[in-house]
């Protein structure tokens, strides 16, 4: 017995030594901050970043509805697309909603419900308006002309130089030559704007030729070496860094994205090393959106990721692993943030996670590989798959937000919810031999209004007490945030005595 124990210990020691380069189990659980809105823009975290964009209420993905002032009816893509555009609806719903693709500050494409684009019929040969094109080109590009002093009163100049008009309820054509702003003018529309996105696509396409300089300045100033110093001095041991697919194409990513985020990520690794911190690289934004949120860098909010996007998404992971796989500060690569798209069946997700895992393992046996659960899915659905992988981690995100139900909770009910339900939920994905568990996102923001400082301290403390049982650790969302409440801003929370790690 004794000799077999020492034999075992020898191997355990050996395997610990061999991993000391990367993340060692003794460094777990990690206490991390997400560097949100740094290498991947999220406008809600600092909307003034969009102030310098002309017509910044008409960014990519903004949804508009157009009501003819003459007919008092909305434009509608019959059947949601694939047919003619009419002007006979009294109410605006999904067939009457158009998602903008911005060509430049005044020229736009209009995407309809079933993803086709509005344009001139017969590839631009006719004057009728249809919604049949799969990819927008010149016949699908319209100039939005806004009235001075009344910017939501608009006329649309079509590619043939003439104005789009609602000639009758069933006849929408591009052959009007007049130019008044009168209600009776069939080319005048009231434009309602509902919804909008402020992500990396919107900011880079919005700034256009000025985007490269704007983004590089943002990357240089938003997070600096001083932030790593601050984090390490205040008990944080790692950073989680959301990145987008274009980083793999640096320095010349496809437009509108701009190069330079890779150098910023290199700097983060350098600073992490200097301050003895670890880095979690998190692919938040594959090229085809996995969840439609601005933070997936989607152009228009449609969730289009599907099985055919696996190879391209894996190639981004391969790039990240090849660059950082042997870096002593790499803790983990997260294969994808918050999957949600309809094409994201658990089968497709597992297929992708297996391929992404294998790509990471080509370069490192020691980095952890993080698997994010599907939003709204069963949190345990990846456990049996992840069981078979070495150094896999299941990522769960916990917010007392995003459902009206949380608005009914008092201070103490929020805190009890964390100690009871959240603790149970985390325990269910924290198994003794399976993958490690990671609360990859949480924050001290909540629905309670006018809470006292003490209330907020207790809420944050309760979460840290529970989430410390996650075997891989946790990551606060976010390190920095310019919203009014400051609850999302970990640096502010620490500096002002709301949180102590
Ligand atoms: C928000 O963005 C503006 C414009 O880019 C910038 O001047 C400001 O410093 C940013 N705020 C923070 C907290 O980083
Ligand atoms: C609108 O016009 C189209 C084309 O004529 C027709 O099929 C449809 O039923 C009309 N809808 C309404 C609500 O009048
Ligand atoms: C905007 O795009 C349109 C359509 O491609 C083009 O004709 C126009 O010159 C562009 N305007 C600017 C300012 O680039
Ligand atoms: C969390 O735990 C509660 C109570 O145990 C359960 O009803 C709920 O479904 C769990 N939520 C998730 C996302 O697993
Ligand atoms: C919070 O405080 C503001 C200002 O003191 C007050 O107007 C508001 O009604 C309060 N809200 C709640 C939910 O108590």
Commentary on this structure:
The protein is an alpha/beta fold. The chain has 2 domains: 5-48 and 199-495, TIM Barrel; 63-195, Trefoil (Acidic Fibroblast Growth Factor, subunit A), CATH 2.80.10.50. It has 11 helices and 20 strands. The protein has helices spanning 2-18, 200-207, 211-222, 225-233, 261-274, 310-324, 346-361, 383-386, 411-428, 453-467, 490-495; strands at residues 30-34, 63-68, 74-77, 85-89, 98-102, 107-111, 117-120, 129-133, 142-147, 150-157, 163-168, 171-176, 189-194, 238-244, 278-285, 330-334, 368-372, 392-398, 436-442, 473-476. An 8-stranded parallel beta barrel has the order 1-14-15-16-17-18-19-20. Strands 2-5-6-9-10-13 form a 6-stranded antiparallel beta barrel. Strands 3-4 form a two-stranded antiparallel ribbon. Helix 9 (411-428) packs parallel to helix 10. The longest helix has 18 residues, at 411-428.
Short summary:
Belongs to the glycosyl hydrolase 5 (cellulase A) family. The chain is α/β, with parallel strands linked by helices and 501 residues long.
Essential attributes:
TIM Barrel, disordered N terminus, binds 2-acetamido-2-deoxy-beta-D-glucopyranose, 2 domains, alpha/beta, eight-stranded parallel β-barrel
Count helical runs: 11
- Could you state the CATH homologous superfamily of the largest domain? Glycosidases
Query: Which fold name fills CATH's third level, the topology of the largest domain?
Result: TIM Barrel
| Distance, first to last CA | 43 Å
């Amino acid at each position: 017995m004794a000799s077999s124990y020492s034999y075992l210990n020898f191997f355990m020691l050996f395997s610990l030594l061999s991993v000391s380069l990367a993340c060692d189990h003794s460094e777990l659980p990690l206490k991390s901050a997400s560097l949100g809105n740094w290498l991947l823009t999220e406008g809600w975290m600092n909307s003034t970043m969009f102030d310098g964009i002309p017509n910044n209420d008409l960014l990519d993905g903004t949804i508009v509805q157009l009501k003819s002032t003459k007919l008092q009816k909305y434009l509608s893509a019959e059947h949601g697309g694939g047919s003619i555009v009419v002007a006979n609806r009294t109410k605006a719903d999904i067939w009457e909603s158009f998602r903008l693709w911005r060509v430049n500050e005044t020229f736009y494409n209009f995407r309809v419900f079933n993803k086709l684009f509005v344009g001139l019929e017969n590839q631009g040969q006719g004057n009728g308006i249809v919604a049949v094109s799969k990819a927008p080109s010149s016949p699908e590009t319209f100039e939005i002309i806004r009235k001075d002093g009344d910017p939501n009163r608009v006329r649309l100049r079509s590619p043939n130089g003439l104005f789009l008009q609602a000639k009758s309820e069933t006849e929408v054509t591009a052959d009007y030559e007049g130019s008044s702003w009168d209600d009776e003018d069939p080319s005048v529309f009231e434009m309602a704007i509902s919804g909008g996105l402020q992500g990396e696509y919107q900011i880079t396409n919005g700034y256009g030729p000025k985007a490269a300089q704007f983004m590089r300045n943002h990357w240089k100033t938003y997070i600096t070496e001083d932030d790593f110093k601050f984090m390490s001095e205040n008990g944080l041991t790692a950073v989680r860094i959301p990145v987008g697919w274009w980083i793999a194409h640096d320095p010349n990513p496809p437009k509108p994205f701009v190069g330079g985020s890779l150098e910023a990520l290199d700097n983060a690794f350098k600073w992490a090393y200097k301050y003895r911190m670890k880095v979690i690289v998190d692919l938040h934004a594959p090229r085809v959106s996995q969840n439609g949120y601005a933070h997936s860098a989607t152009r228009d909010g449609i969730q289009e990721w599907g099985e055919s996007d696996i190879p391209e998404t894996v190639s981004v992971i391969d790039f990240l692993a090849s660059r950082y796989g042997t870096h002593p500060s790499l803790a983990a690569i997260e294969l994808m943030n918050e999957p949600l798209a309809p094409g994201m069946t658990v089968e497709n997700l597992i297929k992708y996670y297996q391929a992404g895992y294998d790509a990471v393992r080509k370069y490192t046996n020691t980095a952890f590989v993080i698997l994010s659960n599907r939003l709204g899915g069963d949190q345990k659905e990846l456990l049996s798959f992840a069981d078979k992988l070495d150094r896999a981690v299941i990522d769960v995100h916990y917010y007392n937000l995003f459902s009206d139900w949380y608005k009914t909770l008092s201070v103490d009910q929020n805190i009890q919810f964390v100690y009871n339900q959240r603790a149970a939920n985390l325990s269910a994905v924290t198994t003794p031999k399976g993958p490690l568990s990671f609360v990859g996102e949480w924050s001290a923001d909540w629905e309670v209004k006018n809470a006292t400082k003490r209330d907020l301290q207790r809420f944050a403390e309760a979460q840290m007490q529970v989430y410390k049982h996650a075997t891989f650790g946790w990551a606060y969302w976010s390190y920095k945030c310019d919203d009014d409440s400051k609850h999302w801003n970990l640096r502010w929370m620490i500096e002002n005595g709301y949180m102590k790690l």
